[in-house]
Specification:
Number of helices: 5
CATH architecture of the largest domain: Alpha-Beta Complex
Number of domains: 2
Order of helices and strands: EEEEHEEEHHHHEE
CATH topology of the largest domain: Nucleoside Triphosphate Pyrophosphohydrolase
CATH superfamily of the largest domain: Nucleoside Triphosphate Pyrophosphohydrolase
């Protein structure tokens, strides 16, 4: 079979990950510090290069597993193609954002990125960032905050049956503000987005626990004012 000759230079393809979790009632994102050049010591997102015989989803799964985490939701965010985003060579980055239901306090770094830690996005945005990772983070936060209005992704941050109060806390953590709890409860039940599955004691009284009924592809609309 004749070998194909490419006339145009092929850029490297990288995967950058924006991994969110809820820690102590607040939204956090996993970031690290560059352990190697370029941008030594600057804050960055975990990522990897796409290997020759894997697709982007497989690269994401490989990288998340190498950190020592497990995700329950992963979505492609955007492709970043600015020619000089990496000073070493032409690198196209496919960014994803994912949800981690039980964030690890001590995720594992590697020879390229170490000192992995969970930071609030507002705190992380004030860091000295490598590459265009500040822009990637900002776009991911914007996408996540918009999507919770019409897709059941917030439940991916809960690894168990939840009370409506616990679910509301996740929404408030993502949005960074209080929501109208009566409207929230009304919308969930009226649109049959959740179903009761049991009961558990919550600080004294027994509360009903729920699970989502809708799939990720089923649209709805929540009033989160």
């Amino acid at each position: 079979m004749k070998r194909v000759s490419f006339k145009h230079q092929r850029p490297a393809v990288a995967i950058d990950l924006v991994l969110f979790g809820v820690v102590d009632g607040s939204l956090h994102v996993l970031v690290g510090k560059r352990a190697d050049g370029p941008h030594l010591g600057k804050t960055c997102l975990p990522g990897t290069y796409l290997r020759e015989h894997e697709d982007a989803s497989a690269a994401c799964a490989r990288k998340i597993a190498s950190i020592g985490l497990a995700h329950t939701y992963l979505e492609q965010l955007y492709t970043f193609t600015e020619p000089k985003r990496d000073p070493r060579e032409r690198v196209v980055s496919i960014a994803y954002y994912g949800l981690i239901p039980t964030p690890s306090i001590w995720p594992q770094g590697d020879t390229k990125v170490d000192q992995l830690m969970w930071l609030k996005p507002a705190r992380a945005s004030r860091e000295r960032w490598a590459f265009d990772h500040r822009e990637i983070l900002a776009r991911a936060v914007e996408r996540l905050q918009a999507k919770v209005h019409y897709a059941p992704i917030s439940a991916h941050l809960l690894s168990h049956a939840f009370t409506l109060g616990e679910l509301a806390s996740v929404y408030q953590a993502i949005l960074g503000r209080k929501i109208d709890l009566s409207n929230f409860r009304r919308d969930l039940l009226k649109q049959e987005l959740v179903r009761p599955v049991g009961r558990k004691a919550v600080r004294g009284p027994v509360a009903v626990t729920y699970r989502w009924v809708r799939k990720d592809s089923d649209p709805f609309l929540l009033s989160l004012g």
